Amino acid sequence: MTKSEKINLIGLDNVSLTELVAKWGHKPFRAKQLINWIHQKGKSDFSNMTNLANDFRSHLTEYSVIATPKVITKQVSSDGTIKWLFDVQNNNAIETVYIPEDDRGTLCISSQAGCTVACRFCSTGHQGFNRNLSTSEIIGQVWWARDEIKKSLNTDSGFEAEDDRVITNVVFMGMGEPLLNYDQVLPAIKLLIDQNAYGLSKRRVTVSTSGVIPFMDKLSQDCPVALAVSLHAPNDELRDQLIPLNKKYPLRELMDACNRYIDFAPRDFITFEYIMLDGVNDTDAHAKQLIDICREVKSKVNLIPFNPFPESGLRRSSHERVRAFSAILNGAGIVATTRKTRGDDIDAACGQLAGDIKDKSKISELMRKRKSIPIKKETL
Ligand code: SAH
Ligand code: SF4
């Protein structure tokens, strides 16, 4: 193996790293030690890994690296939200967002360079698709963000932040459809919940999906973390127009898949995400249809103010409309919360993440054409 083919250890979960270490003729517990150094202690230099024998450290240096994608820019919003733009090669860039709140710190990570699902209301969807991210690129966002946040805390407060709890929650709500990159996303999830790595509980890791049913089922068996389903429309006719994937996995099947997932989920409900689009999906009649769905699937609804971007041709529902919509749901006993928009001033809000994608598909071209097709209003 040449030096240019060094293995990046950051993307290996416990099973894969144990296999590799065994292949190198070392004991399985060395994998645990390595995971601990890399992910819990945040080290990337083998010479710091003091409980590893010298010959093992030399071997590691010769054959492996610990590398995250490189940061291109970092922006900090007036509300404390941080957005990083990472280089993922060949002129593609992805985005990661940190949202600090009083009682938690949420990191929103990307799983693909672009997205193939092409949702009408999503900035990433309008860009088309380049490729899946590797596990190293996915978990590398978490490694890098935590390292930077910890360092900035140390500088600001003058003492060394002992704990890694600056990131308490990780959500796959950045660029891409995580369940269409399942093989690379799963080891990243495993590292997030590994006690030796990031040690998050399954409730604090959320996969958000536009509804890729076969992989919802697979996740429920392999590693059932919290699930958010991007619903955005309460009937197939409208959902087909907003999320083209609905034609393949329509609502009835999606609801059944949600009910199957709940049996394994760390929480006994699914979160339904519902972007409020002025005059499109936000009428009282839509709210009533949504109630019917929520009566069939144990769920909480997260109403999301639409974050506009120039090519969308869509508008955000007014505060009054969101309140009225929410009140109808609440009146029927359904828990509905409205998401606070964060990081507006740096375009870090949901659906505004655009990075820089060299579209290999025809999606961006198609989306430009589709923009001129109005959404049919008789979708009730
Ligand atoms: N592909 C996955 C996860 C990434 S999108 C999914 O679709 O669920 C993460 C969330 O951002 C989804 O709920 C998505 O619908 C929402 N979103 C996309 N575009 C948005 C926009 N313009 N304004 C507000 N939320 C948006
Ligand atoms: Fe892809 Fe999610 Fe955006 Fe739809 S909302 S285009 S699935 S990233």
TrEMBL record:
Its EC number is 2.1.1.192. Keywords: 4Fe-4S, Cytoplasm, Disulfide bond, Iron, Iron-sulfur, Metal-binding, Methyltransferase, rRNA processing, S-adenosyl-L-methionine, Transferase, tRNA processing. InterPro entries: Aldolase_TIM, Methyltransferase_A, RlmN_N, RNA_MTrfase_RlmN, rRNA_lsu_MTrfase_RlmN/Cfr, rSAM, rSAM_sf. The active site is at E95 (proton acceptor), C350 (s-methylcysteine intermediate). One of its GO terms (molecular function) is metal ion binding. [4Fe-4S] cluster binds at C115, C119, C122. Gene3D superfamilies: 1.10.150.530, Aldolase class I. It is an enzyme of class 2 (transferase). It is found in: Cytoplasm. Reaction proceeds by a ping-pong mechanism involving intermediate methylation of a conserved cysteine residue. PANTHER family: 23S RRNA METHYLTRANSFERASE (PTHR30544), RADICAL SAM CORE DOMAIN-CONTAINING PROTEIN (PTHR30544:SF5). This is Dual-specificity RNA methyltransferase RlmN. It comes from Taylorella asinigenitalis (strain MCE3). The lineage of its organism: Bacteria, Pseudomonadati, Pseudomonadota, Betaproteobacteria, Burkholderiales.
